[in-house]
């Protein structure tokens, strides 16, 4: 069975390691915070100027001056700090942030990512995504494997305007976990009950498949 | 002490004319100079080029200036959540320059710091890099970006004193800090305007030298764009 958005977030949460500073993008990536192990120390950075983000506030305790990059009201945890946007991207560019998790419209086998524009149709802008993908050492993409028309978003080459080149390291979709290697997408895990054949049929890019592909474990 | 206090938003915005380039602080609706935006709508200044991370929502923030067609060009990083903006952009009525958020912040900071240009890896290999100088540093490709040149910067702070010293609250610091002093004239609107001597110099985020005019905003709605909460256990 294909994963839902929370399952994708849950699987990505396994990639968050002790002492990591993590930047979460809007959408599925934001959900990752809910599933990170509680026995490790992790700090979440939001590029609008906060480190040490906590959960959403209790009803009635929202503060218009304390939001994340998705413009959602948030809280801060002990040890948190606020800073301005230039400083925030300074810590991103200088690679103080260990892991960036973001969404995408397309990912290509060379690690290119497109997520900010559909020419003539939709232009929301790149926000902080271009800065993040250009500088982060470890980038994981959370996305759906196919679009609403059933077409693969895991491609040999991106068709949409790029956000960054050769930067994505891993992709987690409702069907699979894939690593981007110098030779292309390597299939690491499949969603419970999803066959390798189904993943191949849903993927435009070539997949490197070595041996038995295990089901992902999401406990 | 050099006194920067002005008594009204009208006085603060004197000299802003048609065709000027204005920086406006804020991220989404967080920390936007709402009183100054309302006054710009009143003034009816047009053909403005606005440098602001976002473009407000349909009925608040810079969305109010867009509704009245007062903006000729927007320089932003993210413009979703604004139907009127998208309509004007796709129809070609509005000129839009989309810039990576960190680059946008640094183009402000560079202007504030007197640095004409800098290199950043953001946007390399994308359409953002088109026409820009590319250089390799430490084995990585970078593109050259220029400091902004703006006539006015309008920022919003939590507290300020009559000397123009500013303190921000929470994530409302965002672009307000790097825009302060990044234009020929910087206007600060604050929630609390206190006499000099009442702010601890250790706690000042932006020193008054960056601010030419400061006033107390009459009313702050501080609208929340995405009100997210959790249930009490």
TrEMBL record, chain A:
Keyword Transferase assigned: yes
InterPro entries recorded = 3-oxoacid_CoA-transf_B (IPR012791), CoA_trans_fam_I (IPR004165), CoA_transf_AS (IPR004164), NagB/RpiA_transferase-like (IPR037171)
One of its Pfam families is CoA_trans
The entry's keywords: Transferase
User: What's the superkingdom here?
Assistant: Bacteria
Q: Which Gene3D superfamilies does the UniProt entry name for this protein?
A: Glutaconate Coenzyme A-transferase
Q: Which SUPFAM superfamilies match?
A: NagB/RpiA/CoA transferase-like
Q: Which PANTHER family match?
A: KETOACID-COENZYME A TRANSFERASE, SUCCINYL-COA:3-KETOACID COENZYME A TRANSFERASE SUBUNIT B-RELATED
> Which family is this protein grouped under?
Belongs to the 3-oxoacid CoA-transferase subunit B family.
> What is the name of the protein in this document?
3-oxoacid CoA-transferase subunit B
| Lineage, top ranks | Bacteria, Pseudomonadati, Bacteroidota, Flavobacteriia, Flavobacteriales
TrEMBL record, chain B:
Q: One Pfam family, short name please? A: CoA_trans
**Keyword Membrane included in the entry's annotation:** no
The cross-references to SUPFAM superfamilies, in alphabetical order and at most eight, read: NagB/RpiA/CoA transferase-like (SSF100950)
Question: Which InterPro entries does the entry link to?
Answer: 3-oxoacid_CoA-transf_A, CoA_trans_fam_I, CoA_transf_BS, NagB/RpiA_transferase-like
Q: Which keywords does UniProt give here?
A: Transferase
Q: Which GO molecular function terms does the record list? A: transferase activity
Does the keyword field hold Transferase? yes
Supply the NCBIfam families for this chain.
pcaI_scoA_fam
The family line of this record is: Belongs to the 3-oxoacid CoA-transferase subunit A family.
Protein name listed in UniProt: CoA transferase subunit A
Species name:
Flavobacterium buctense
User: Lineage of the native species?
Assistant: Bacteria, Pseudomonadati, Bacteroidota, Flavobacteriia, Flavobacteriales
